[in-house]
Amino acid sequence: MAVEVLLPKIGLTMQEGTIDEWLVPVGAVVAEGDALLRLATDKVDVDVEAEAGGLFHPVVPAGVTVPTGALIGWLLAEGEQPPDPAGTPMPAGSGAGAGASLPALNGTDAGAAPAVSSANGTGGRLLSSPNARRVATAADVELTAVRGTGPGGRIVSEDVEEFLAALPGDLGDLGDLGALGEPVAPGGTSYSPLVRKLAKERGIDLSEVSGTGPGGRIRRSDLDAVTTAPPHRDAAPPHRGAAPRPGDVVPLTGMRGTIARRMHASLQEMAQLTHGYEVRMDAVVSLRARLKEEWADSDLPVPSLNDFLLKAAALALREHPLLNATVREDGIHLLDGIHLGFAVAVPGGLMVPVIEDAVELPLPEMARRSRDLAQAAREGRISPAQLEGATFTVTSLGGYGVDFFTPVINPGNVAILGVGRLRDGVEWADDRPLRTRVLTLSLTFDHRAVDGAPAAEYLRTVGDLLSRPLRLLV
Fold this sequence. Notes:
Radius of gyration: 26 Å
CATH topology of the largest domain: Chloramphenicol Acetyltransferase
CATH superfamily of the largest domain: Chloramphenicol acetyltransferase-like domain
Number of domains: 2
Strand content: 15-25%
Helix content: 10-25%
Distance between the termini: 56 Å
Largest sheet: 7 strands, mixed
Structural class: alpha+beta
């Protein structure tokens, strides 16, 4: 019996996802638990496993974006044909219009596949360029199935060409195509249409990329590795997507689009105010130097300055629960658990891994978890579950030389703590200047839930904890 393959919902906020690449060829035998596809969401890229066994038959090509719960393929028994597309219901929330269709996929009408996120225009009118319509007509492609990337979602000719490149069969002069219409590099290495598009945006020559997928297949993570790799010191660094040039257009899609929407909504929906507060770090710096010596031969991780700040932020929340809350229609809900999010810069945006029950963790364990989570985020290995549930967030720009800034609250929280750089300060004692080590904390809070005085008291508690850091070790 045919088993549906549906796009999974990963995390509470996921609404759609992009099929970065299919990890098995058409017709391959798939066992339950085998990695079936690489899914790109607004937060993380993750391999999705098959929930059953069978012969794999996709109905959506790689490189397209579909809503959660949409039908994207079938797992069939030997000799079984996929169900009649006409009898396959469209998923709720799909953007497909009447008559929307996809070109044949391996000889099977893919019209039943959920519409990709391509609905555009105003009042039902589809926005497309004349050249896009010409290319679509020549290739017999229904424009409602194409995702527009032009202004206002307008479909341009490049969008149609990308759509064609994602489909199998002879669709024109598209070069040598592999399974599922995936282009093949000169050396025989395959890659998905999305990988090709990203490589073009980042200025990467795919013939020079070593693939880590099956059969040397080039994956999205391989492009990220090339993008973030330091250039050879004797060579001029090539242009990469991480460093846009004048004239470039950075699309508000994927992670960048999610960050834009969430931050705009945060500032629109909350009454945000920021306090700046200078704290002494002499005792923390001294204790950390001592720990580096005493723990040199142990497997205990030496906490970083940020780890001390994370622990102090968590302990202070226990004394000031109004900062560990969320605002709902019926009032301010003070939360039971203290789950600390911390911002990590990654290629193309920002991730916020979450340390659960942070107040209960000894500082060495908190240091271990923060490093493991940050590394997983930077390497694209972090799971969606590790990005959910933060009740308070800490973000640091100290490593970039920033003293004070105004962090924006993550929706669902009522506060976020910013950390500036460690710097020299001066304190006067008996008319004599004393050198100190200080940094500035930037606490942004939602004035609907917290007033200025309680926010200042929270900062004072954090400063007091940092002045006696031995209390933070346990």
